[in-house]
Design brief:
Chain lengths: 555, 296
């Protein structure tokens, strides 16, 4: 057999053994490893050890001597395409910034002032920014991240280190300007973001993570509390192309803002179906978490950049999508995910049953909503928490929340769950709805089934299994289903041939947010399915950059 | 002032910088009733500034060039670029790597406490190339622990993964027991009886000096000035409380995202158990040219 080319992914004991075997068979081997070194002894997990074989030790000397093995450390496989035994591979190797052969770098370690989380040793110690991964291999490496871990985690890539540092120096206006380079919603996101950045914060290894989200809120609040008019800066010369943005929520408005910064000021029209702009910020998140007056400040900042918002215009009804497409040079679909998912239980169409999202929308718009007696909220996410906490405030005497797993598995943010409980929401865990009990055509209760946790499912969460014969009825005047949202994509005609995903979302190129229809982009929940607000904003920013490239032919 | 000492180096916690994170002030539950007043009221200025000062300003290499001054010329090259390789290959061999699910460990196992470590951390401690040259120690004071508990933290998983993880921990217990004079080691797992009856556990009766308990840990909490760990566990229908110098958490293995992505790109379905066959064997998949290197 002719010489083959083999890629081995992972420079652990198993990878090294495989590389040596493949090389011995006469093949050319590329061994990729994410860390700057390979090897390291391992404790076996396939047998109980006896004397003398405590560790499995890789043969690093054999790897070094073998000319048929090329070791690509600091390397990540970025693409791997092909089939039937022919693959094209892209490997990206981060620079080590060190020529190990020119000096022994022990002294470099001694003087380095940086003491960072020791990812080489499972965080047991601190390591320096210049260090080696495995003394047996060498593999010195000078580690400089493109950005700190908080920024890398932030969907919209906020320069957190800089804006937090500016707060520490008392430079609040500068801090806010840093945030607004990317995010036009500091007042709103500073209140509602579930802050994935804080989960990664390195200070968390020491004591507790920095309160990044609320610091963003702080500098944004300083501006409105001191009545400072924010500075608006858009390019003097603008491009002639007109852009339509359908949906005036987090994603659509962030896109409009960035298009204005890119030079399309006064040529951007946002079409909002509801009477007021803001999307889920306005009609999803309740007033007690994000006051409408505060949200209005963020939106005012955006419109001042030359963004026109036309409210009360529903595309597909007031104007056809065809007209939009022919009147504008580029279109963004940022229509969110405002349609509640069905509980798929009997009688859920009965009077007294509502979609949680529709209820929040009506509450947010000041429409009439049910508010008397007892209600049941079905679901365990943040929308369910918002529905339950809103219900308590509008006047329900008793709010019962049903969730089919336990508190631990709830997808809602833990602080939202705690607040709901403090305020008096009664939680019923391991309870699944079976059927809405109806009397004279109106809901009067819910027939439920008790559950227990079984084996883990595909999501890694333990799957609830019904307990036989455990049916019971919970009385209720009103039932809210808050078990997820999908996109109402009925505004576009079938003839365009848009492709849709599982949540009825528009399928897009994840890098550019382009749909399969030329000149039409989609971002936010309408592209990703229901997700957090800052991710919707991030999608809007990326879509703006893609629209700019598309219009300028920079593809 | 508090000092974090690591490897003979220090990190200072300054007096004007709180170690605890600032709490968001809220209106009381009573004030929230029947209205939509904003619940969270925002940080006052002094709290915001103090909180911002807690930021460690992570940057990794600062470009201070102290190392450059210390080394021979050109040994450190700040401008050295990244490299990209385009390869054409006939075969791709995937390995499982060694990565653990840290996040889902429930708080009751006390993984925030200094003297509670994970099985992978203990593997680094026991390794000669590790940071302590093979010594097992308490992170809190650097003392050698005498009384150690190994504790399973995950619930039901694939049997193969369960056995591999338990045997990994048992091997650590065996090595620790040999290295520490007079060590008392307990190994607490709700799957101990299941392991004993499986093929993987056939050598268990040859292990001496480790007290195997078929039980479930309820809670692990810090106790006393030495920050020992008090472990409350259930075994044989009764609840016991015992204090240990060090607690080792057995954590659930997972594939690194890079391997999961690569498997997806090739079109093979894998999980950690796919790599737990005959040690060292190269197993073909249903995609030609895609091979799984079994763990050694």
């Amino acid at each position: 057999m002719a010489e083959q080319k083999v890629l081995v992914m992972g420079g652990g004991v198993a990878g090294i053994k495989a590389a040596l075997e493949e090389a011995a068979a006469g093949n050319k081997v590329y061994l990729t490893e994410h860390f700057p070194g390979i090897g390291g002894e391992r404790i076996p997990q396939d047998r109980i050890i006896t004397d003398g074989d405590a560790f499995a030790v890789p043969d690093l000397a054999a790897i070094k001597e073998n000319d048929n093995i090329e070791v690509l450390t600091n390397g990540d496989v970025q693409a791997l395409v092909g089939e039937n035994g022919q693959y094209k591979v892209k490997v990206h190797c981060r620079t080590p910034r060190v020529h190990t052969e020119k000096d022994n770098l022990v002294n470099a370690i001694r003087v380095c002032p940086i003491h960072m989380y020791d990812d080489y040793n499972e965080g047991l110690e601190w390591r320096t920014a210049v260090d080696f991964f495995n003394s047996a291999w060498g593999g010195y490496n000078l580690y400089k991240e493109d950005m700190p871990v908080c920024q890398r985690t932030c969907p919209i890539n906020l320069d957190i280190r800089t804006y937090v540092g500016q707060i520490a120096d008392g430079k609040y206006a500068e801090s806010l300007a840093t945030i607004r380079k990317k995010l036009p919603f500091p007042l709103s996101i500073g209140r509602v973001c579930p802050h994935p950045c804080e989960g990664e914060c390195n200070r968390g290894y020491m004591d507790e993570p920095i309160s990044i989200c609320f610091l963003k809120r702080y500098v944004a609040d300083v501006e409105i509390n001191s009545n400072v008019e924010p500075k608006i800066q858009v390019p003097d010369e603008t491009y002639p192309e007109k852009i339509a943005i359908i949906g005036g929520g987090p994603s659509g408005l962030t896109c409009a803002y960035h298009l204005a910064l890119l030079g399309y000021s006064n040529n951007i029209t946002v079409f909002e179906a509801l009477p007021e702009p803001g999307g889920m910020f306005r009609v999803g998140i309740p007033e007690y978490r994000l006051p409408k007056a505060i949200l209005a400040k963020d939106i005012e900042f955006i419109t001042k950049h030359g963004v026109e918002i036309k409210c009360g215009v529903r595309i597909g009804k007031d104007i056809t999508f065809d007209d939009i497409k022919s009147d504008y040079d580029a279109v963004l679909l940022a229509i969110g995910a405002h349609k509640g998912m069905s509980m798929r239980v009997k009688n859920e169409e009965a009077e007294g049953c509502f979609e949680g999202v529709k209820y929040l929308r009506d509450a947010g718009l000041g429409n009439e909503i049910p508010n008397k007696g007892t209600c049941i909220v079905v679901g365990g996410g943040n929308v369910a928490m918002d529905v339950a906490r809103t219900s308590l405030r509008v006047g329900f005497d008793q709010v019962n929340l049903l969730y089919r797993r336990t508190r631990k598995e709830m997808p809602a943010s833990p602080w939202e769950v705690d607040a709901a409980e403090e305020e008096g929401v009664a939680f019923h865990f391991l309870v699944a709805p079976q059927e809405v009990v109806v009397k004279d055509g109106k809901a009067v209760g819910m027939k439920c089934l008790k559950m227990e946790l079984g084996e883990p499912d595909a999501s890694g969460r333990r799957k609830p299994v019904p307990i036989e014969g455990s049916e019971f009825v919970m009385d209720s005047d009103t039932v809210f289903a808050a078990i997820g949202q999908v996109t109402d994509n009925s505004l576009v005609d079938e003839k365009f041939g848009f492709k849709f995903g599982r949540k009825l979302n528009f399928e897009v190129n994840p890098r550019t947010f382009e749909t399969n229809v030329e000149g039409v982009f989609a971002s936010g929940d309408a592209a990703t399915g229901a997700n957090i607000a800052v991710r919707a904003c991030a999608g809007g920013k990326t879509a703006a950059e893609s629209i700019h490239k598309y219009l300028r032919g920079m593809k | 002032m508090y000092i974090y000492e690591k490897k003979g180096r220090y990190i200072i916690g300054f007096q004007d910088i709180p170690s605890a994170r600032a709490e968001m002030p809220e209106i009381s539950v009573k004030e929230r009733q029947g209205n939509f007043k904003e619940v969270e009221t925002g940080f006052p200025e002094d709290v915001a500034v103090a909180e911002a000062k807690r930021c460690l300003s992570c940057r990794r290499c600062l470009g201070c060039a102290l190392c450059w001054a210390e080394c021979k010329p050109e040994a450190i090259d700040f401008e050295m670029p990244d490299e990209d390789f385009d390869l054409t290959i006939d075969k791709v061999v995937l390995t499982s790597g060694m990565q653990r699910k840290i996040a889902p460990i429930a708080g009751n196992y006390g993984n925030k406490h200094m003297n509670v470590v994970t099985d992978l951390q203990v593997e680094r401690m026991l390794a000669d190339t590790g940071p302590s040259n093979g010594l097992i120690y308490r992170p809190q004071d650097g003392e050698i622990p005498k009384k150690i508990a190994f504790v399973q933290t995950f619930g039901s998983v694939d049997d193969k993964i369960r056995d591999a993880t338990l045997i990994f921990g048992i091997n650590e217990a065996i090595i620790a027991q040999k290295k520490i004079d007079g060590a008392e080691i307990s190994f607490i797992s709700p799957d101990m009886d299941a392991l004993k009856t499986s093929a993987a556990g056939s050598d268990l009766d040859k292990v001496s000096g480790v007290n195997f308990v078929n039980g479930t840990v309820v809670e692990a909490a810090e106790a006393g000035e030495n920050k020992d760990i008090e472990v409350k566990y259930e075994a044989n229908g009764s609840e016991k409380i015992e204090t240990f110098d060090l607690v080792v958490l057995l954590t659930q293995p997972q594939l690194p995202p890079s391997i999961e992505d690569a498997a997806k790109m090739v079109g093979v379905e894998v999980n950690y158990a796919s790599f737990l066959g005959k040690p060292g064997e190269l197993v073909e998949t249903d995609k030609p040219g895609a091979v799984l290197a079994q763990n050694v």
